[in-house]
Structures are given as structure tokens and as C-alpha cells.
Amino acid sequence: MRRLGKARKLSFLIFIGLVCASCSADMSGSAQSRMKSWMDGTGLISSSSQILTDIKNIKISIKGDDLSSLHSLCVVLGNDVQDANGNLPSPNTAVTNELSLGYSQIYSQSVSCYKAAAKSQIEAEIASMNKSFLLIQDAISVSKAIVGSS
Q1: CATH number assigned to the domain comprising residue 79
Q2: At CA 131, angle to CA 79 and CA 59, rounded to 5?
Q3: Which residues contact 89 (CB under 8 A, 6 or more apart)?
Q4: Is the Cβ–Cβ distance between 141 and 93 less than 8 Å?
Q5: Rounded distance between C-alpha atoms, residue 70 and residue 67, angstroms
Q6: CA 20 to 30 Å from 10, out of 26, 96, 116, 123?
Q7: Spatial CA neighbour of 44 closest among 54, 35, 31, 32
Q8: Is 11 inside any structural domain?
Q9: Hey, which bits of 12-144 come out as E strands?
Q10: Which residue range is the domain that position 130 belongs to?
């Protein structure tokens, strides 16, 4: 009976070792290969596109009369930004810093959007979100330049 416990522990330790080895393997090699691996693994382009879509959905929905549905869209945006931020750090400090700032600003704006009592406040947040999204676009451009794609 005691041998079975040791075998399970050993199996678990081997599994953890393999998981850790696979994680570190993704960050070896050139700056180009590390960035490509990170971009592919995190879905940087798709998560950024989703954030932009969320902002556009808020902008489109502002024309309606339902403030609670606008607040829901603001929550969706905040959740998507948190998910994207969870993929940091990137292999490049400048990219990480720019993404982090963009995500942080948009998250704060999504919270303000959620708390807004009037559409005019949400409209102001949308304008700020669009400006903050430029930081994310810049980081994507730098990432693509590192990888060598356009």
C-alpha cells in the first residue's frame, strides 16, 4: 500500500516537471522565436481584436435607450481586458509595458463606463478607450516587427 503512494507522488512530480519543461521551452531561442511563440500562445492578435470589437459594440449600443445593456457591455470589455492582461509579460519589456498601460487604462475606463449614470459619460469613456487602444496597436506593431511579419 505504501509503495502505491510513492508511485503516485513520483508520477505527479514527473508530470509537474514535464509541464514546467514545456513552459520554459517556449521561451528559449532568439528574440524573434520567443516573441512568435508568445504571440501564438497567447492569441495576442485575436484578444486585441476582441477588445476593439467590445469598444465598437459599446459605441454602437450607445444609440439605444437601455443603459443597463450598455453597462453589461462595459463589463464584457473589462473581462476581456483582464484576460488579455493575464497573458503578460511578453518576452519584450517595451511590448509588455505598452500593453500593460493600454490594458490598465481600458480596464479603468470600462469600470467608469459601468458606473456611468448617463450616456454622455459613456461616450466620453469610449473616446478615451479609443485613445488607449492605440497603445495596444503600437505594441502589436512592435511585436510584429520583432517577429518579422506585417
Answers
A1: 1.20.120
A2: 60
A3: 96
A4: no
A5: 5
A6: 26
A7: 35
A8: no
A9: none
A10: 32-147
Q: Please report, in tens digits, the pLDDT of each residue of the chain (150 residues total).
A: 445 565 555 455 555 544 443 444 356 789 999 999 999 999 999 999 999 999 999 999 998 878 888 999 999 999 999 999 999 999 999 999 999 999 999 999 999 999 998 889 999 999 999 999 999 999 999 999 999 986
> Cα separations (Å) of 70 from 4, 58, 62, 79, 137?
56, 6, 7, 14, 25
- The domain total for the chain is 1
Q: In this structure, what C-alpha cell is assigned to residue 73?
A: 457591455
Say what the alpha-carbon torsion angle 32, 35, 37, 38 is, to the nearest 10 degrees: 180
What does the DSSP 8-state code read for residue 78? H
Give a yes or no: residue 84 inside a domain.
yes
Among candidates 59, 63, 60, 147, which has minimal Cα distance to 109?
A: 59
